[in-house]
């Protein structure tokens, strides 16, 4: 199944791109600044097409099959979104052209800001951040700037529950603040007693994922937020799990001060094999002035005849710019299309069916897999991939064996507070039949774990590649390849 | 339309299995007083309706396909071969997540490995990560790498004033909590020779742009040497397309090369998504943030690829990680890999040369006009600065009446360059369009 590398396919003198002749007089190239060799591959167009098509065939995507990857919200990516994002009126606009000549784009961005604000219960939204983690950094810098602006310089700590995604503590460190980890209680909620012990005037804020990474809605979210606000801190919401809350509850109404949305999760934009994402940030009224610059605003009100004139605005106390230009506009177009089609009723249907699907899987799997926090979950839940009577089997083996059934495995080994975690997020776009087929596979795997553990340990068997030697990769560190002499092949 | 396959019977059966009666019962944990808000959002519409609505919205924009575009300043209108989008639209690529399961993700993994290889060969550096968000955040990550390399003991960073202004702003935003001094970009008069003087034992990193924001090309060997003497890391921000022609920064001592991959086959798309290139020397690989793909073998003896050196990353090191980045720009990195495969050794050089010759033709003709002159006399690539007789915004308004998208108004970012226009010329512009630009510029020299 091994596909040669581009440099192995290369043949001297071969080429694909044909350009017009130079139609202006040629001028001398600058001396001493021209490179001698350009070591790029030499291929024909069909070489390149087949190479990348063959590579694509070694991949698994949502369009290939079921992808219950916890915390990633691998829902169906509507095709119309792709076509609309490729309309020439969007793709052929320059980020620095006069805003008066890009009113279509600005109107779209403005509406998306407004809709996201409404969905989250916030006063304003910035579309600048490029991904969830980038939105987190933006949000935490906003919190830092807010305290600083009030002359409150001693707030240097960010509280982070132990169930949090690793980006939360990493973000805090990047912002120059200190991470304090808060344990979870036996129901999977933030441990209130421990939290209370840390609430003092050194707290800048708390980062809270809700629903949390166990897929559970924080039952004491009101108390948690009150404690933080009570000591003068602000609450950051990690919105990676917003799918469960659409039209159900607005984080702003719960008291969250700032939150990032993941357009590439909740709002159906494709993950692209690891990006591009988009992580807009919503803030409550008291943080609006700190948003990254620029945001889209109305610079001239419209009337019955004329639409409003939109433009870029710099918030008064902005933390600055977090990205070149205006964020991932192309991704925003897809999310806009999705939201506009769903409308207010569609949003609630998304949440309902994502939560219904997760709970259905949870109850169907619980006889065969231990569910450590077994109560009504939101859009996902966490099972344990281990049994006392199958001591050699790990979550990893279950994940690998699932591929033989044609499924993408759930997230494993996260969250860290569950041993051998299997984090399962079905999403709303999967049918009952698909869920049932997945359950059947999981039950059979649980049986095989006892009856034929080798079958799991050596899995996958039916995929184009077997398990990879990750130790060798890290030890030998072959991270790129250089041009290959034809004779050497 | 929420793309939900459930029938009423399915819902009933599933609720029964869970032991609930109504959908609303799923939400008992949510405080009642804020449950089920009445959202002020539009009513749903069909695919047919949205298609028409969005076409209208998109047509409210001025499209650079319909007018010659002389605007660059960090985003360039280049020709994009058809093959690229055909590959990007392969569902297996764009509907996949980050390749956590290598057995069924070799497509993404090998494509990223190819991207890393192409970026190393193009920049002359030894290692490349799997990408950052854009050129600006890549530069911010270079600063963070340098701070870590010096274990937090050096607190000064020198940024050239002719690094893209957005990039410098992003570095300042990223590092605002790190207690850094960022200097060097206070005035356009600060040259790279002066930079060599400003380097000291406190300097963690010095960064320049090549070609710079004003289009100029400079050889940075002496700055590279000076940086090396003080053990400051030397970072070069590049336009990767220019490297089809120009010496790679590895030849003048770069420790880190960053840049935006947009010119390599990515549409303008009003500013994103693009892709942040980040390459460096092997010795810094463990301090480099972002994902990294390495070669290995599978249990059947086949060559394969995996995400490697993950212990550097946030999901393992949490608050000790060097960066919080996880999602990067996978699909855009793929676009640049396809572009570089199609352009190849000869094509990339030819595109770069076309840009070079056309820009020089335009610059010389404009310089010959009575009321305009070139601001700079040294070597430049495909962008140049013109001193204009009137405010740039006014000239641009008039150019637009002739269906020409004029250049960037430098007065917005450099007070000393009021009435100066930054003009970019790429291979898609033809001679007649340049002649038209020159004619109209002459015509609008006075109000």
Keywords:
heterodimer; A: 489 residues; alpha/beta; Aspartate Aminotransferase, domain 2; seven-stranded mixed sheet; three-stranded antiparallel sheet; 12 strands; globular; B: 447 residues; Aspartate Aminotransferase, domain 1; 2 domains; four-stranded antiparallel sheet; 13 strands; 36% helix
Write a structural description:
In chain A, strands 1-7-6-5-4-2-3 form a seven-stranded mixed beta sheet, with helices on both faces. A three-stranded antiparallel beta sheet of chain A has the order 10-12-11, with helices on one face. With 489 residues, chain A is α/β, with parallel strands linked by helices. In chain A, strand 4 (203-209), helix 9 and strand 5 (234-239) form a beta-alpha-beta unit. The two termini of chain A are 18 Å apart. Chain A has 15 helices and twelve strands. In chain A, helix 3 packs antiparallel against helix 11 and helix 6 packs across helix 7 (167-174). Chain A has one domain: Aspartate Aminotransferase, domain 2 (3-Layer(aba) Sandwich). Chain B is an alpha/beta fold. Chain B folds into two domains: 82-339, Type I PLP-dependent aspartate aminotransferase-like (Major domain) (Aspartate Aminotransferase, domain 2, 3-Layer(aba) Sandwich); 347-443, Aspartate Aminotransferase, domain 1. Chain B is 36% helix and 13% strand. In chain B, the strands form three sheets. In chain B, strands 1-7-6-5-4-2-3 form a seven-stranded mixed beta sheet, with helices on both faces. The longest helix of chain B is centred in the last third of the chain and has 38 residues, at 330-367. Chain B is globular, with a radius of gyration of 25 Å. The interface between A and B is large, with 200 and 202 residues.
